[in-house]
Specification:
By secondary structure, this protein is α+β, with helices and mostly antiparallel strands. The protein has helices at about 15-25, 25-40, 70-75, 95-100, 165-185, 270-285, 295-305, 315-320, 335-340, 350-360, 370-375, 380-395, 410-415, 430-450, 480-485, 490-495, 495-510, 525-535, 535-555, 560-580, 585-590; strands spanning about 45-50, 55-60, 105-115, 125-145, 190-195, 195, 210, 215-220, 225-230, 230-235, 245-250, 325, 330-335, 345, 365, 420-425, 460-465, 470, 475-480. It is built from 21 helices and 19 strands.
């Protein structure tokens, strides 16, 4: 039996290649890693130069590599850990490899030059080290962008994707410069590209508040942008912390190797930020100001996924009296008001009159579809009932509901259908107004057509109904549904103006009887309607109403439908043809 010997594990170069490939997300991020290295080296200024021939350089005035030992341990070896406090941004010493996935590079620092060529076929994973008498202060990195910007998961380090078009390469460098501006926006070391400064020291900017952990800017935006000591980390939805804006930490956020997320349980900086953000959010809600759509969306997302968010009783008590639940008509009510109802349903988004009757007469609270758009759930009764249960559970300590009664809106239609409401003409659209003015011009002709003696007492008015295109009380008025008036524009699908005339005739045939209370038609009714629509005057009334309508549209500079234009053009062509065939008749007419 041989003597046991102690051996060390080693890492195959292929693993390091894979690590570089996985980290090389974007060219902008690769340059950001070099900027962070410069800052960690004590640089007071970092200058990048992007040239039209796709070459680039990055230079700093940091301490650089002072001897061969530092090169072997900190440049040649990937993953050498940082000592506590020796770096502001670095943790794993692997970030410099990202630029190697995009370009062959030359690194000059002190008396040393490192020539790194990892792109192309048959290249070995290594570099050439040269020592000379010339001294380069700080560190200077130069290279030419040669690798196409592809998805890292498809990137093969053994194959170079060479950009043959310099304009394309230059475009990618320009794109990287825009990205880099965002990535290093709040670092406190000046960073320049082609002489233009990219960043602003956060100490020079106004913030909502500042403490030992960072700078906080809270606003009404839909997302929160997070920076670790000035370097971009991620952008999260407002619902994550209930605030929008910007957070720039003064201390390092404990990030993963990709620098885009953190462990909520191990990162003291983000735990502290969460408390600060939550306090600001509660103050904003308690002030009772009008919440933005982003803030309302955040509240619904938190209620829908309460298990994911820490929500204490104090916050729930504040929210219980906060008006953020949208209801029919566009207003907002508080959960305290919404949950007072004895019954609940899901509004169909169309039948507003039925909804209003259900609320006023049936003690209903109605969910509106926009709530489910906010929480990315289908607009169904099942979703509404599930969310109602979450809402009642969420506020269980604020309100007690013994039994949830949920009724399908189709059932409400059966109960409350037959709603009628008169509205003033000024609530109509311009098209609807043009239509009702046209009907008013011919209503006397319609009255004479059906031999109605009370014509002078029937006013033409506008209205809203869930079940009728027009209706009458049989004596004083005929009401036209605003949707019917609006649809007169769509000749092909709605019957256009002829339909309005038919409605008027139909309602005038209800003589001394309301079409609201009953819609039964006697034989006398059918005879009046039959005789009116087959009379010689009927077609003339339709034509008159049609002309009045088109004139009203054009006077108000409204478009005429394509069907109407085709019809008008056809009539004009026929008239022109007749004039050519019978010029003598035309001259007599003109005379």
């Amino acid at each position: 039996m041989s003597t046991p010997e102690k051996r060390m594990f080693s890492v195959h170069p292929g693993i390091i290649k894979h690590l570089i490939r996985e980290q090389a997300g974007t060219l902008g991020k690769a340059f950001a890693e070099l900027v962070m290295n410069s800052i960690d080296a004590g640089a007071t200024r970092v200058e990048l130069q992007f040239n039209d021939d796709a070459t680039f350089s990055i230079k700093d005035d940091g301490r650089g590599f002072r001897d061969r030992n530092e090169i072997e341990h900190f440049f040649e070896a990937f993953g050498t850990p940082h000592a506590e406090g020796d770096a502001k941004h670095g943790r794993f010493r692997v970030g410099r490899g990202q630029i190697m996935a995009y370009a062959n590079t030359l690194w000059r620092s002190g008396h040393f030059t490192m020539d790194v060529r990892l792109l192309g076929e048959d290249t070995q994973f290594g570099y050439q080290l040269t020592e000379s008498k010339e001294h380069e202060p700080g560190c200077l990195i130069t290279g030419r962008f040669e690798c196409d910007d592809v998805d890292p998961s498809y990137f093969d380090m053994d194959v170079a994707f060479v950009v043959t078009d310099p304009h394309t390469a230059n475009y990618r460098l320009n794109t990287a410069s825009y990205e880099l501006r965002r990535l290093v926006r709040y670092v406190d070391t000046p960073v320049f590209i082609n002489g233009s400064k990219l960043n602003t020291d956060p100490k020079e900017l106004p913030w909502t508040l500042e403490d030992d952990n960072g700078y906080y800017l809270f606003d009404k935006s839909r997302s929160l942008v997070i920076y670790s000591q000035g370097i971009f980390v991620t952008e999260v939805q407002r619902s994550r912390f209930s605030v929008g804006g910007v957070f720039v930490s003064k201390k390092a956020i404990k990030l993963n190797i990709a620098r885009n997320s953190w462990d909520d349980f191990q990162c003291d900086v983000m735990r502290h930020f969460s408390k600060v953000a939550h306090a600001d959010y509660l103050k904003a809600v308690e002030r009772g100001g009008r919440l933005t759509e982003a803030e309302i969306t955040t509240l619904f997302c938190r209620i829908a996924d309460e298990e994911h968010y820490e929500i204490d009783f104090t916050e729930k008590s504040v929210l219980f009296k906060t008006r953020f639940i949208p209801v029919v008509g566009g207003e907002k009510v508080s959960p305290q008001t919404f949950l007072k109802a004895s019954r609940y349903s899901l509004y169909d988004g169309e039948s507003s009159l039925i909804a209003e009757r259900a609320i006023s007469e049936g003690d209903f609270s109605l969910f509106v579809p926009s709530i489910f758009h906010m929480i990315n759930e289908p607009v169904t009764d099942k979703s509404a009932l599930a969310f109602l249960r979450k809402l009642t559970d969420f506020f269980a300590k604020n309100v007690y509901i013994s039994d949830i009664s949920f009724v399908s809106f189709s059932r409400l239609r059966d109960i409350y259908s037959g709603t009628f409401e008169l509205i003033p003409d000024n609530e109509l659209s311009m098209r609807g107004l043009a239509a009702i003015k046209s009907v008013k011009r011919i209503i006397g002709q319609v009255a004479r057509l059906v031999d109605c003696r009370d014509a002078r007492f029937r006013k033409v008015v506008a209205g809203r109904s869930d079940c009728a295109g027009a209706w009458t009380d049989g004596l004083s008025y005929i009401a036209f549904n605003e949707s019917t008036l609006e649809e007169a524009y769509l000749t092909q699908s709605s019957g256009g103006i002829e339909r309005l005339v038919n409605h008027a005739i139909h309602e005038y045939c209800h003589q001394a009887e309301s079409s609201v209370d009953t819609h039964e038609h006697s034989l006398a009714f059918y005879k009046r309607y039959h005789d009116a629509t087959l009379s010689r005057q009927y077609a003339e009334i339709v034509r008159n109403c049609h002309r009045f309508y088109l004139r009203n549209l054009t006077q108000n500079e409204l478009r005429i439908s394509s069907d109407e234009r085709r019809h008008a053009n056809a009539l004009r062509d026929i008239a022109d043809s007749m004039d050519k065939r019978h010029p003598k008749r035309k001259r007599l007419q003109e005379a």
